[in-house]
Amino acid sequence: MVRPTRGLSSVVVPTARPGPTTASTAALALGVLGVLYAGDGRSGGVDGWLRSAVGDARPLWRRVALAVDFLAEPAGAAVLVVAAVTGCLLLRRPRAAVLAVVGPGLAVGTTTLLKPLVGRTIHGVHLSFPSGHTAFLTAFALVVALLVAGRRGLGAAAGTSLVLASALLAGAAMGWAQIALDAHHPTDVLGGWCAALVVVPVSAWLVDRVSGARGRERR
Questions:
Q1: pTM of the model
Q2: Phi, psi torsion values for 15, nearest 5 degrees
Q3: Hey, CA dihedral for 55, 63, 119, 78, is it positive or negative?
Q4: What pLDDT was estimated at residue 59?
Protein backbone atom coordinates (compact mmCIF):
# COMPACT_ATOMS: atom_id res chain seq x y z
CA MET A 1 0.00 0.00 0.00
CA VAL A 2 1.33 3.45 -0.89
CA ARG A 3 -0.22 6.40 0.81
CA PRO A 4 -0.23 10.14 0.18
CA THR A 5 2.16 12.02 2.41
CA ARG A 6 3.01 15.63 3.00
CA GLY A 7 6.38 14.99 4.58
CA LEU A 8 7.99 13.40 1.56
CA SER A 9 6.77 16.17 -0.73
CA SER A 10 9.65 18.27 0.51
CA VAL A 11 12.02 15.49 -0.50
CA VAL A 12 10.78 14.12 -3.76
CA VAL A 13 7.11 13.53 -4.40
CA PRO A 14 3.88 14.75 -2.77
CA THR A 15 1.65 11.90 -3.84
CA ALA A 16 3.20 8.51 -3.22
CA ARG A 17 5.67 6.57 -1.17
CA PRO A 18 5.72 3.13 0.43
CA GLY A 19 3.35 3.57 3.36
CA PRO A 20 3.29 2.08 6.84
CA THR A 21 1.38 -1.00 5.70
CA THR A 22 3.98 -1.84 3.06
CA ALA A 23 6.87 -1.26 5.46
CA SER A 24 5.21 -3.23 8.26
CA THR A 25 4.43 -6.18 5.99
CA ALA A 26 7.99 -6.18 4.66
CA ALA A 27 9.39 -6.00 8.20
CA LEU A 28 7.20 -8.93 9.26
CA ALA A 29 8.31 -11.01 6.26
CA LEU A 30 11.95 -10.14 6.94
CA GLY A 31 11.60 -11.19 10.57
CA VAL A 32 9.84 -14.46 9.75
CA LEU A 33 12.43 -15.42 7.15
CA GLY A 34 15.24 -14.52 9.53
CA VAL A 35 13.81 -16.78 12.23
CA LEU A 36 13.11 -19.64 9.83
CA TYR A 37 16.63 -19.72 8.41
CA ALA A 38 18.65 -18.62 11.44
CA GLY A 39 21.90 -20.55 11.71
CA ASP A 40 21.08 -22.66 8.67
CA GLY A 41 23.25 -23.17 5.62
CA ARG A 42 20.83 -25.31 3.65
CA SER A 43 18.32 -24.38 0.98
CA GLY A 44 14.69 -24.73 1.95
CA GLY A 45 11.83 -25.96 -0.21
CA VAL A 46 11.08 -22.48 -1.54
CA ASP A 47 14.77 -22.01 -2.30
CA GLY A 48 14.91 -25.22 -4.29
CA TRP A 49 11.84 -24.36 -6.31
CA LEU A 50 13.07 -20.86 -7.17
CA ARG A 51 16.58 -22.05 -7.96
CA SER A 52 15.23 -24.68 -10.34
CA ALA A 53 13.09 -22.00 -12.01
CA VAL A 54 16.15 -19.82 -12.60
CA GLY A 55 18.30 -22.73 -13.76
CA ASP A 56 22.01 -22.72 -14.49
CA ALA A 57 23.44 -19.59 -16.08
CA ARG A 58 25.00 -20.24 -19.49
CA PRO A 59 28.15 -18.26 -20.37
CA LEU A 60 26.28 -15.36 -21.98
CA TRP A 61 23.73 -15.06 -19.18
CA ARG A 62 26.46 -15.44 -16.59
CA ARG A 63 28.13 -12.35 -18.03
CA VAL A 64 24.82 -10.51 -17.81
CA ALA A 65 24.43 -11.65 -14.21
CA LEU A 66 27.93 -10.42 -13.38
CA ALA A 67 27.13 -7.05 -14.94
CA VAL A 68 23.98 -6.72 -12.82
CA ASP A 69 25.89 -7.88 -9.74
CA PHE A 70 28.49 -5.15 -10.34
CA LEU A 71 25.82 -2.48 -9.85
CA ALA A 72 25.77 -3.31 -6.14
CA GLU A 73 29.50 -3.83 -5.74
CA PRO A 74 31.29 -0.88 -4.07
CA ALA A 75 32.53 0.64 -7.35
CA GLY A 76 29.25 0.17 -9.21
CA ALA A 77 27.15 1.36 -6.27
CA ALA A 78 29.32 4.47 -5.92
CA VAL A 79 28.80 5.33 -9.59
CA LEU A 80 25.02 4.98 -9.27
CA VAL A 81 24.80 7.04 -6.09
CA VAL A 82 27.07 9.80 -7.38
CA ALA A 83 25.01 9.99 -10.59
CA ALA A 84 21.77 10.18 -8.60
CA VAL A 85 23.11 12.84 -6.24
CA THR A 86 24.40 14.89 -9.17
CA GLY A 87 21.03 14.67 -10.91
CA CYS A 88 19.17 15.70 -7.75
CA LEU A 89 21.42 18.71 -7.24
CA LEU A 90 21.06 19.78 -10.87
CA LEU A 91 17.30 19.59 -10.43
CA ARG A 92 17.60 21.58 -7.19
CA ARG A 93 16.36 18.75 -5.01
CA PRO A 94 18.91 18.76 -2.17
CA ARG A 95 16.79 16.64 0.16
CA ALA A 96 16.34 14.04 -2.56
CA ALA A 97 20.13 14.05 -2.95
CA VAL A 98 20.46 13.28 0.75
CA LEU A 99 17.90 10.49 0.44
CA ALA A 100 19.82 9.04 -2.53
CA VAL A 101 22.73 8.50 -0.16
CA VAL A 102 20.92 7.71 3.08
CA GLY A 103 18.31 5.29 1.67
CA PRO A 104 20.61 2.81 -0.10
CA GLY A 105 23.30 3.30 2.55
CA LEU A 106 20.99 2.39 5.43
CA ALA A 107 19.56 -0.53 3.44
CA VAL A 108 23.03 -2.02 3.02
CA GLY A 109 23.91 -1.19 6.62
CA THR A 110 20.79 -2.98 7.83
CA THR A 111 21.63 -6.16 5.93
CA THR A 112 25.21 -6.00 7.20
CA LEU A 113 23.98 -5.85 10.80
CA LEU A 114 21.41 -8.61 10.30
CA LYS A 115 23.74 -11.16 8.70
CA PRO A 116 25.68 -12.11 11.85
CA LEU A 117 22.50 -11.98 13.92
CA VAL A 118 20.70 -14.44 11.64
CA GLY A 119 23.80 -16.50 10.98
CA ARG A 120 22.62 -18.09 7.76
CA THR A 121 25.41 -19.19 5.45
CA ILE A 122 25.96 -20.29 1.87
CA HIS A 123 28.82 -22.52 0.72
CA GLY A 124 29.50 -23.22 4.37
CA VAL A 125 31.28 -20.01 5.34
CA HIS A 126 29.66 -16.91 3.78
CA LEU A 127 26.93 -15.09 5.72
CA SER A 128 24.08 -14.67 3.30
CA PHE A 129 20.81 -13.45 4.85
CA PRO A 130 19.59 -10.94 3.83
CA SER A 131 21.14 -10.06 0.47
CA GLY A 132 22.86 -6.68 0.61
CA HIS A 133 23.13 -6.53 -3.18
CA THR A 134 19.37 -6.89 -3.56
CA ALA A 135 18.67 -4.41 -0.77
CA PHE A 136 20.93 -1.79 -2.36
CA LEU A 137 19.53 -1.94 -5.89
CA THR A 138 15.94 -2.07 -4.66
CA ALA A 139 16.49 0.91 -2.35
CA PHE A 140 18.22 2.84 -5.12
CA ALA A 141 15.38 2.13 -7.55
CA LEU A 142 12.82 3.27 -4.96
CA VAL A 143 14.59 6.59 -4.46
CA VAL A 144 14.93 7.23 -8.20
CA ALA A 145 11.30 6.28 -8.84
CA LEU A 146 10.13 8.66 -6.12
CA LEU A 147 12.15 11.47 -7.66
CA VAL A 148 10.84 10.77 -11.16
CA ALA A 149 7.25 10.57 -9.96
CA GLY A 150 7.61 13.91 -8.19
CA ARG A 151 9.36 15.56 -11.12
CA ARG A 152 6.67 14.40 -13.53
CA GLY A 153 3.88 15.43 -11.20
CA LEU A 154 2.30 11.99 -11.29
CA GLY A 155 -0.88 11.39 -9.33
CA ALA A 156 -1.19 8.95 -6.48
CA ALA A 157 -2.17 5.97 -8.63
CA ALA A 158 0.50 6.51 -11.29
CA GLY A 159 3.14 7.38 -8.70
CA THR A 160 2.30 4.29 -6.68
CA SER A 161 2.52 2.06 -9.74
CA LEU A 162 5.88 3.51 -10.77
CA VAL A 163 7.42 3.20 -7.30
CA LEU A 164 6.29 -0.36 -6.67
CA ALA A 165 7.08 -1.52 -10.22
CA SER A 166 10.58 -0.06 -9.94
CA ALA A 167 11.19 -1.83 -6.65
CA LEU A 168 9.90 -5.09 -8.06
CA LEU A 169 11.96 -4.90 -11.26
CA ALA A 170 15.17 -3.90 -9.49
CA GLY A 171 14.74 -6.59 -6.86
CA ALA A 172 13.93 -9.22 -9.46
CA ALA A 173 16.92 -8.30 -11.63
CA MET A 174 19.43 -8.37 -8.78
CA GLY A 175 17.75 -11.40 -7.25
CA TRP A 176 18.05 -13.32 -10.50
CA ALA A 177 21.74 -12.38 -10.74
CA GLN A 178 22.46 -13.51 -7.19
CA ILE A 179 20.69 -16.83 -7.70
CA ALA A 180 22.24 -17.42 -11.12
CA LEU A 181 25.72 -16.76 -9.70
CA ASP A 182 24.93 -18.99 -6.71
CA ALA A 183 25.89 -16.11 -4.42
CA HIS A 184 22.70 -16.25 -2.34
CA HIS A 185 19.82 -18.52 -1.49
CA PRO A 186 16.62 -17.24 -3.14
CA THR A 187 15.09 -16.44 0.25
CA ASP A 188 18.17 -14.31 1.03
CA VAL A 189 17.18 -12.24 -1.99
CA LEU A 190 13.62 -11.90 -0.72
CA GLY A 191 14.97 -10.78 2.63
CA GLY A 192 17.10 -8.10 1.00
CA TRP A 193 14.13 -6.85 -1.01
CA CYS A 194 12.03 -6.61 2.16
CA ALA A 195 14.83 -4.77 3.96
CA ALA A 196 14.79 -2.05 1.29
CA LEU A 197 11.01 -1.67 1.55
CA VAL A 198 11.40 -1.13 5.29
CA VAL A 199 14.40 1.17 5.24
CA VAL A 200 13.59 3.62 2.42
CA PRO A 201 10.32 4.95 3.93
CA VAL A 202 12.04 5.33 7.30
CA SER A 203 14.97 7.09 5.64
CA ALA A 204 12.62 9.50 3.83
CA TRP A 205 10.84 10.27 7.08
CA LEU A 206 14.14 10.93 8.87
CA VAL A 207 15.39 13.22 6.10
CA ASP A 208 12.15 15.20 6.24
CA ARG A 209 12.18 15.48 10.01
CA VAL A 210 15.80 16.61 10.22
CA SER A 211 15.51 19.01 7.29
CA GLY A 212 12.23 20.40 8.55
CA ALA A 213 13.64 20.99 12.03
CA ARG A 214 16.65 22.83 10.61
CA GLY A 215 14.38 24.94 8.41
CA ARG A 216 12.30 25.98 11.43
CA GLU A 217 15.44 26.86 13.38
CA ARG A 218 16.64 29.13 10.57
CA ARG A 219 13.28 30.90 10.41
A1: 0.87
A2: -110, -25
A3: negative
A4: 84
